[in-house]
Every structure is written in structure tokens, then in C-alpha cells.
Write a sequence for this structure.
């Protein structure tokens, strides 16, 4: 229950009690539960997208509504992390200076640009899925693609917390979860997410008129590559991960998954 409370309380706005104790095992379990917790955001986002499409709002408006739904569901926590990470990377090549900038809470030009660009990428990817879905009468598949991408993006947290990845500083969320997830456990979880995502796409579009089940592992692979790039850069610059870096991973992975599905749809 502590792991569930930590996962839900960190990733969503759903009211839940604080964990009684948070150790490495609880932190690891909380990160492994992230894809399950993500369903609290993914299902509403997918439903909103589908309803907006069939209601005639247009794919662009539907995509914007998805982003709004996610922001209401996660209080823009991950976007804040993305902005802080971008500011830290742009601030200085001095590690301590970069970490200090990230802790101020202010958003600088680099942070603003990063948030705008990533949100544009997310909206563009979802909008194209909606356009293809409307053209082929496969709006349900488009909604499934959006929902699955939300789950994929939260599953990437296991990569950010895998053993061997250090914390950037001795306090904060990063210090609690860094290096807590075993590599085999992370690999198994990502494989499971890929299989389930592919099955959902197959059920939503059996004829693969819009998107096929193999698109799921491709989207997860691209999201994983984006996560690896973020991790590599942040470890080089900051010495490890922080809560902000984990937020950046989520938002970058969501954009990568949606854009990949959009590129494969047709």
C-alpha cells in the first residue's frame, strides 16, 4: 500500500494518503506500478480524445483536450520537471550551479522553449492520429493509441530508476527512487507493457486499417531511446537523476510515442 500511495500521489492528483514509510523496496515497487497508475490518466485521456473526435470537434481540438486532461490529472508536475531540467542544462557546465538553478523553481527561457516544443510535439502527434482515425472511421484506435502512449511514457520511469543510475543530489524524489529498480524487472515490465499495448491496438483495430499491433513495440522503443538520451545527458551534467529529470523523461517519452504512432498510422 505504501508503494501504491507513493506512485499515485506522485504521478496523479487523485487524493490518497501519504505512505507510512518509504524505503528502497517501496520506491522500486512504486516505479514499477507507474504504468498501472498511469491508467488513471490514460483512460480519461483516451476517452476524451475519442468523444471529441466522434463529436465533430476536429482532430486538433481533440488533441488539445487530451493535453488539458493530462494536465488536470497530473497537475503539470512533469512539465515543471521538464522546464527545470532544460533550465539546468542551459544554465552552466558547472554541476552545482545547474542543480541550484533547477531548485529555484523559476522558469527561464530554455524551460519555456522546452515546454512549448514538447507540448507542440504531443499535440501534433495526437492530432495526426485523430485525422487518420476520422478518415478511416477508426476513432477508437486513435483513442487507444493516445491512452497507450500515456502508459508507455510513465513506464519509462523504470528506466530512469534502474540500478546503476545515480541520484544527482542526496535529497528529493530522485534520491528516493534512483537505482531501486532491477534491470531484469524493468525489462520485463517494458516487455509486458509492449505486449498489452499491442493487444489493445489489435482489439481496437483488428483489420489494422489505421495502425497495427506491431506499432506498439516500435513506439515503446522510440520512447526508450528518447529516455536514454535524456538520462545520458543528465547524468553527464548533473551526476544523476532528480525528480525534475524524471518529469522530463515522462514528457519526452509521451511526445516520442505519439509522434511514432502518428508516423506509422495510415
Amino acid at each position: 500500500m505504501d508503494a501504491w500511495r507513493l506512485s499515485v500521489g506522485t504521478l496523479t492528483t487523485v487524493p490518497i494518503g501519504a505512505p507510512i514509510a518509504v524505503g528502497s523496496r517501496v520506491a522500486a515497487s512504486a516505479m514499477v506500478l507507474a504504468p498501472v497508475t498511469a491508467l488513471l490518466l490514460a483512460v480519461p485521456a483516451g476517452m476524451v480524445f475519442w468523444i471529441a473526435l466522434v463529436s465533430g470537434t476536429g482532430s486538433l481540438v481533440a488533441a488539445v483536450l487530451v493535453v488539458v486532461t493530462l494536465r488536470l490529472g497530473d497537475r503539470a508536475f512533469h512539465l515543471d520537471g521538464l522546464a527545470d531540467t532544460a533550465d539546468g542544462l542551459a544554465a552552466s557546465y558547472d554541476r552545482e550551479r545547474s542543480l541550484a538553478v533547477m531548485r529555484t523553481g523559476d522558469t527561464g527561457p530554455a524551460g519555456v522553449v522546452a515546454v512549448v516544443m514538447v507540448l507542440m510535439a504531443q499535440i501534433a502527434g495526437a492530432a495526426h492520429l485523430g485525422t487518420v482515425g476520422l478518415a478511416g472511421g477508426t476513432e477508437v484506435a486513435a483513442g487507444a493509441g493516445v491512452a497507450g502512449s500515456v502508459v508507455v511514457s510513465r513506464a519509462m520511469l523504470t528506466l530512469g530508476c534502474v540500478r546503476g543510475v545515480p541520484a544527482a543530489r542526496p535529497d528529493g524524489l530522485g534520491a528516493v527512487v534512483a537505482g531501486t529498480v532491477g534491470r531484469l524487472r524493468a525489462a520485463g515490465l517494458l516487455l509486458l507493457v509492449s505486449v498489452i499495448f499491442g493487444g489493445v491496438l489489435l482489439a481496437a483495430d483488428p483489420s489494422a486499417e489505421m495502425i497495427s499491433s506491431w506499432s506498439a513495440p516500435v513506439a515503446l522503443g522510440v520512447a526508450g531511446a528518447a529516455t536514454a538520451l535524456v538520462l545520458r545527458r543528465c547524468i553527464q551534467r548533473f551526476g544523476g537523476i532528480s525528480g525534475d529529470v524524471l518529469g522530463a523523461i515522462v514528457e519526452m517519452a509521451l511526445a516520442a510515442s505519439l509522434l511514432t504512432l502518428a508516423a506509422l498510422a495510415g
